[in-house]
Amino acid sequence: MPVTELYVDGINDVLRAFKALPKAASQELRAASMEIAGRYMAPAWREAAGYAGPWGDVLADSVKVKRDRVPAVSIGGNKKVLSGGGTATMVRYPSSSGNARQSFAPFEQTDWLRRTGGYRQAAIQEWGRAVDRIVSKWDSL
Length: 141
Prior knowledge:
By secondary structure, the protein is mostly helical. The protein has one domain (27-139). Helix content is 49%, strand content 3%. It contains 6 helices and 2 strands, in the order αααββααα. A two-stranded antiparallel sheet has the order 1-2. A hairpin with a 7-residue loop joins β1 (64-65) and β2.
């Protein structure tokens, strides 16, 4: 289930405008977004996962950079990494909220999903520069 962490006004228009450019422009944007996510987002989420109690290491190991036109990471996965066959996805939200639902696991509220730090502004600024660079490159051809 995707989660939007930050809303940027006008981003849909920018992404829609990329459809008018050659496919290679979108590929460059995806590569730049992956680099930005790897530099800013993934380390912040891995560090935040350290606050997730006994599941922190499993969650930190599950942070992956996604290939998208905007910087993005995924947390979790369906690989069985816990004893009893549990996945990182199964403990992602309960380890933050403390809501165990129908689980017998001792979840405590840690709010680790809110401890990502201040990477957002730097990541968005760098992504904006990447968009400007790519558009000016392909628009001039």
